[in-house]
Automatic annotation (TrEMBL):
Domain of life according to the entry: Bacteria
All copies of domain Aminotransferase class I/classII large, residue ranges: 47-391
Protein name from the UniProt record: Aminotransferase class I/II-fold pyridoxal phosphate-dependent enzyme
GO biological process, any: biotin biosynthetic process
GO molecular function terms noted in the UniProt entry: 8-amino-7-oxononanoate synthase activity; pyridoxal phosphate binding; transaminase activity
Alphabetical keyword list: Aminotransferase, Pyridoxal phosphate, Transferase
Protein's organism: Euzebyella marina
Cofactor annotation: pyridoxal 5'-phosphate
């Protein structure tokens, strides 16, 4: 396993959104020549609208429309000047009304994204720290990343995890200020920030300051509709800043920052980056916002809030009577119906659209891939009969979609970490039998080797060797569990075979080297910092095609679903935090299936192999290289071959074993591009006692005692492959004797001498291997995590280290 390439995040988002768009549930266009808020037209069909964020329906209020049109008539479509110079006349009215609403100084911004970009760099000092809730809105995270080059410490905690927050506060306690940034209401699940408890922490730690993005909490709750956070706080402490919105439920455009005091207000207003240089709100938006603020300052706002609250409670009551998985039980206008796998989400959205309801698909990166679901929003536009009809449609379609996609409410609850009354389980299909074994010794050798045995180190004998090597070790990272999955039809014909391992991985194995360097420094005090138990196809010791799938079999698709169910049971039984299916080619038939099951596609480092035609010699092989690579061989490899004494050993004494292990550790510690735990020294004993392993050893003739300076640890797959699994080198001789290149060349010569069909060179150093004729292959993996926290935290670290 190896690093995710830098563009993998964007590639994953692109792939998933393209898939959703292809399914007809994303990138849609609304139609029609007018809106009422209650209905929306898509593809010629009028749908009841349950996707708006205008929860009070003010965007359709005639008073706001009239005010917007009057502002255009009086002032034009825009006022193209920076507010730092002059604001158009309506701004003064708007700021006056907003000051009345909040009772605190306010700053109006073009939108919340530009607001965060302007405010956060203005309030956070170089000796400050920022701690992000890992579900805080993207616009907040993006603004914080701009500070990475200024010495500001960026950190992240799991969503609403107060104990973890307090631990991170203590870690950053020497910083001048510690800013915790969160949403008031989270836009996907509709859940709340624990505002009261956070305020208690701020009183306990005076350095702690709270920064809330409360755009989804605006208008529908609180005095004068000032939002969820202020409704909880009652008054604004000097340690708190709140962003509200003039769009969404407010019905206009723009955003508003509420400052706790005049001093901070003046600092931000005087110079706030985009706040200073961006164009100001259009007159129409300001006019509409003034009209909305007047409603917020009247008793009418409470009537509107009550009407919405009645609808929310009605929908809550209806859902409690139906077997639908609602992810968070709250009284916000946002409801999230869990589907788990994207495929289930696609089908439910489509079914609801066909039945006359528009809802939003919740998907990665807004939520983890396996936490796909349907986001339903309730607004004042929705009538009680509409809401009842939607509840009945969910009751009808939800179980049908689950059946179509071979899932269940228990599976969905487990995907979201919700307690389920039953343990993970799966039932064998009447026509297919799933067998799971914990040792290769219980698997028929001919069955295994005929379908998977030619692939790398994991023929039957190789797996037996791995099992013996990775158990009863002192270090937990070197004790692996093996799981062999065999799916056959009723006549014993194999449909799917693979093996999985459960082992401890360093989380940064999927991150750039600079991230690993920082984490390795922290691991000096705690070697298991940022590590996870991973359920992986194959193992950290093996590379290649780890799965056999008989796609000609009529039941292979059903076998895939049974396979996924078996994996989920393993995940539940072992407590694995990540599942990885790996070593797939770029164009593989399983991609669409795995996307639909909630797996992210990532590109791994290229892998290399070298076919060896019958009768080929080293000389004939070199002769067929490109002219440039032949020159490379003649200059950097051939002249140095005579400098070495080359030995092929199967057994080594204890002194040699210690030396070979040190050479291996040299490479392992320097190869942060593939950051794994070091393998145990007992591995060498297991190699020496197994006839399929041998050591290609290079000694330097020119120095006294002919020191051993390089070794290739090679496995002979008796079905035709040669696998140089690991390398060990004395780094003093890397450049002067081109040591690594010589080891590669001697590996090729040895495989030819054994009359083997192919060398599986594996990952990393593809540039060097290509020079000696190796073929380079793009390799991909698919992974699924319990949540996005560690991926986002590592992404935050990567951003810091790139500055």
């Amino acid at each position: 396993m190896a690093k995710i390439r830098h563009n993998n995040f964007l590639d994953t988002v692109h792939d998933l959104m393209t898939n959703a768009s292809r399914e007809g549930v994303l990138h849609l266009y609304a139609e029609g020549d007018h809106f009422t808020g209650r209905h929306i037209s898509v593809k010629g069909k009028s749908l009841m609208h349950f996707g708006t964020t205008g929860y009070l329906g003010l965007e359709q209020d005639e008073r706001l429309k009239s005010a917007a049109m009057a502002a255009i008539d009086n002032y034009g479509t825009q006022f193209p000047l920076s507010k730092s110079y002059i604001s158009h006349p309506l701004y003064e009215q708007l700021e006056f009304h907003l000051n009345q609403m909040y009772g605190y100084p306010i700053v109006v911004t073009k939108n919340s994204t530009l607001g965060h970009l302007g405010v956060i760099p203005s309030i956070v000092g170089t000796n400050d720290a920022i701690i992000l809730d890992h579900q805080v809105h993207w616009s907040v995270q993006s603004a914080c990343r701009l500070l990475k080059s200024q010495g500001v410490a960026l950190d992240m905690i799991r969503h609403n995890h107060l104990q973890m927050l307090e631990d991170r506060i203590k870690f950053h306690i020497k910083r001048r200020k510690i800013w915790y940034m969160a949403d008031g209401i989270y836009s996907m699940f509709g859940d709340y920030a624990p505002v009261v408890q956070l305020m208690e922490l701020a009183k306990k730690y005076p350095q702690l300051h709270l920064y809330f993005d409360d755009v989804h909490g605006m208008s529908w709750i609180g005095k004068n509709g000032t939002g969820y956070v202020l409704d909880q706080l009652k008054e604004l402490s000097d340690q708190v800043l709140v962003f509200g919105t003039l769009s969404k439920t407010f019905g206009a455009s723009g955003a508003v920052l509420i400052c706790p005091n005049e001093k901070l207000y003046q600092k931000i207003k005087t110079f706030g980056g985009p706040l200073t240089f961006s164009a100001q709100l259009e007159p129409s938006a300001v006019g509409a916002a003034i009209a909305s603020s007047k409603i917020h300052l009247s008793k009418e706002i409470y009537q509107l809030q009550e009407e919405l609250s009645t609808r929310i409670q009605y929908f809550n009551d209806l859902l409690k009577l139906r077997e639908v998985v609602i992810i968070d039980d709250n009284n916000s206008p946002v409801f999230y119906v869990g589907t788990g796998a994207p495929e289930t989400g696609y089908k439910l959205v489509r079914r609801l659209m066909d039945d006359g309801f528009y809802t939003n698909l919740g998907m990665f990166p807004a939520v983890p891939v396996k936490n796909t679901g349907i986001r339903i929003t309730i607004s004042r536009h929705n009538q009680l009969d509409d809401i009842k009809a939607l509840a009945e449609a969910l009751e009808h379609h939800y179980p049908k979609v689950l059946q179509e996609t071979v899932t269940s409410t228990d599976r969905i609850k487990r995907a979201f970490g919700i307690h389920s009354s039953s343990n993970p389980s799966f039932k064998n299909d009447s026509k297919l039998l799933v067998k799971v074994y914990q040792t290769i010794e219980k698997v028929d050798k001919e069955l295994w080797d005929s379908n998977l045995g030619r692939n790398g180190l994991f023929n039957w004998d190789g797996l037996l060797w791995l099992e013996k090597n990775f158990k009863n070790n002192s270090a937990i990272e070197n004790n692996w569990q093996f799981q062999y999955i065999i799916i056959q039809d009723s006549e014993g014909i194999p449909v799917l075979l693979t093996f999985m391992t459960i082992s401890l991985w360093k989380d940064d194995m999927l991150s750039p080297e600079n991230v690993s360097q920082e984490l390795e420094a922290k691991r000096k005090g705690n070697p298991y910092y940022m590590t996870s138990k991973v359920l992986s196809m194959g193992s950290l010791f093996t590379e290649g095609k780890h799965i056999f799938l008989n796609e000609k079999h009529p039941l292979y698709k059903k076998a895939l679903h049974l396979f996924i169910l078996a994996i989920e049971k393993m995940e539940g039984d072992t407590g694995a935090q990540m599942v990885v299916f790996r070593d797939f080619s770029k164009e593989n038939r399983l991609q669409s299936f795995l996307f639909n099951q909630g797996y992210m596609k990532i590109r791994m480092p290229d892998t290399c192999s070298l076919p060896l035609p019958l009768g080929i010699t080293a000389e004939s092989h070199i002769a067929q290289l490109s002219p440039r690579n032949r020159r490379h061989f003649r200059k950097e490899i051939l002249p140095y071959e005579a400098e070495f004494q080359i030995e092929i050993l199967q057994n080594v004494n204890s002194e040699e074993r210690e030396h070979l292990y040190k050479l291996y550790l040299n490479v392992q510690k320097n190869n942060l591009g593939l950051n794994t735990f070091p393998l145990p020294i007992s591995m060498l004993d297991q190699m020496a006692s197994n006839p399929n392993w041998e050591f290609i050893i290079l000694r330097l003739k020119s120095e006294s005692g002919m020191p051993l300076i390089g070794v290739m640890f090679c496995y002979i797959n008796t079905l035709g492959n040669y696998i140089p699994a690991f390398v060990g080198m004395d780094y003093r001789y890397i450049t002067s004797y081109h040591l690594y290149r010589q080891l590669l060349y001697q590996t090729i010569k040895r495989a030819m001498a054994l009359n083997l069909d192919k060398i599986d060179f594996g990952m990393t150093a593809s540039f060097e291997k290509r020079k000696l004729g190796a073929q380079v292959h793009e390799v991909y993996a698919f992974l699924q995590t319990r949540d996005n926290y560690k991926l986002e935290f590592l992404g935050l670290m990567e951003g810091q280290n790139k500055s």
